[in-house]
């Protein structure tokens, strides 16, 4: 997907299904006193409580109506979208939005942790009703499941405050990424390959098991830059107390979608519920609470993959 360097969008998650090669850098660095995966901080405002809309709730499949709940498969941590707070509860932007959608539908959202690569197969098997884990709606994935779009996420780099980095010319620099993300397997390697092709030093890609470790490395000055999904970068900057800032614009935006079984009426119910929240302002309030309003959309669609 990367600016003609990589055209295959088949496994974009943004967390990909492919395993990363080589050892991770996380064990090589000493990280202290910065962010963690169990955050004390959270949304800027109170959680939005939405009202049930009977006409929309009527769109739910009968089995969901009878159960009174949506079984939602989720992979954590991925701040600010989905992670555990200090009390061990699964929280985040995705969670608050799905909870509001569930309110509109008159059901409860029940979250079940899963390995990322197992979410879509579990939906196909009927184990989960919905997959909600910052999943990019791609053409290949649409062959397996249907998606209801709810957000646009691109890639954004961050740098230390006052130490400029050009994402298009980071040759020879250390760049932190979360392992198994598309930034790790596609985007930064493509930029590095371009450097080498031009006779410049390769980018030193520092892959960490968890996003918080990548952010910490940048905050501590152990890397020059960080590449992550745009809402992840925005949240990291918000939590950094001014230590890091954006480096360049958001690029390669694509929609996040909630995954449901192919042909399921649930996609329609989710689409109508989130569109209701977009129309009445609750959706925008939720995005602002988590500082991710840059990726807010005004129209939800079913199967909205780009390209």
Please tell me about this protein's structure.
By secondary structure, the protein is of the alpha/beta class. It folds into two domains: about 25-30 and about 155-255, Periplasmic binding protein-like II (D-Maltodextrin-Binding Protein, domain 2, 3-Layer(aba) Sandwich), CATH 3.40.190.10; about 55-155 and about 255-295, D-Maltodextrin-Binding Protein, domain 2, CATH 3.40.190. The protein is about 30% helix and about 25% strand. The chain is built from ten helices and eleven strands. A five-stranded mixed β-sheet has the order 9-8-10-7-11, with helices on both faces. Strand 8, helix 6 and strand 9 form a beta-alpha-beta unit. Helix 3 (about 95-105) runs antiparallel to helix 10 (about 280-290). The protein starts with about 35 loop residues before the first strand and ends in an 18-residue tail after the last helix. Residues about 1-40 have low confidence and may be disordered.
CATH fold label of the largest domain: D-Maltodextrin-Binding Protein, domain 2
Low-pLDDT stretches: 1-40
CATH C-level class of the largest domain is Alpha Beta
Strand content: 15-25%
Main pleated-sheet profile = 5 strands, mixed
First-last Cα distance: 9 Å
Q: Give the count of structural domains.
A: 2
Condensed summary:
The protein has 307 residues and is an alpha/beta fold. The protein has helices spanning 54-57, 62-67, 93-105, 119-124, 139-142, 182-197, 211-219, 230-239, 266-280, 282-289, and strands spanning 38-39, 69-74, 83-85, 90-91, 108-113, 130-131, 145-160, 174-178, 204-208, 225-229, 244-261.
């Amino acid at each position: 997907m990367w600016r003609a360097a990589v055209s295959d969008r088949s496994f974009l998650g943004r967390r990909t299904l492919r395993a990363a090669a080589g050892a991770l850098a996380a064990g090589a660095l000493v990280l202290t006193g910065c962010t963690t995966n169990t955050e004390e901080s959270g949304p800027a405002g109170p959680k939005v409580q939405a009202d049930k809309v009977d006409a929309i709730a009527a769109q739910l499949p009968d089995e969901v109506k009878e159960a009174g709940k949506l079984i939602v498969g989720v992979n954590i941590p991925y701040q600010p979208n989905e992670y555990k707070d200090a009390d061990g509860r699964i929280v985040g932007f995705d969670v608050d939005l799905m909870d509001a959608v569930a309110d509109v539908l008159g059901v409860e959202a029940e979250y079940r942790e899963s390995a990322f690569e197992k979410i879509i197969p579990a939906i196909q098997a009927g184990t989960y009703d919905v997959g909600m884990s910052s999943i990019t709606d791609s053409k290949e994935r649409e062959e397996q499941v249907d998606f209801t779009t709810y957000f646009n996420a691109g890639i954004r780099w961050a740098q230390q405050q006052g130490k400029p980095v050009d994402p298009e010319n980071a040759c020879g620099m250390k760049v932190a990424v979360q392992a198994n993300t598309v930034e790790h397997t596609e985007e930064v390697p493509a930029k590095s390959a371009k450097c080498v092709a031009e006779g410049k030093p390769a980018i030193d890609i520092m892959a960490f098991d968890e996003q918080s470790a990548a952010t910490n490395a940048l905050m501590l000055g152990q890397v020059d830059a960080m590449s992550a999904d745009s809402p992840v970068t925005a949240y990291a900057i918000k939590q950094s107390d001014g230590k890091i800032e954006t480096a360049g614009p958001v690029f390669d935006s694509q929609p996040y979608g909630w995954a449901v079984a192919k042909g399921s009426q649930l996609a329609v119910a989710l689409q109508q519920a989130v569109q209701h929240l977009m129309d009445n302002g609750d959706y925008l309030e939720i995005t602002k609470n988590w500082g991710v309003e840059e990726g807010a959309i005004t129209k939800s669609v079913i199967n909205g993959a780009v390209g």
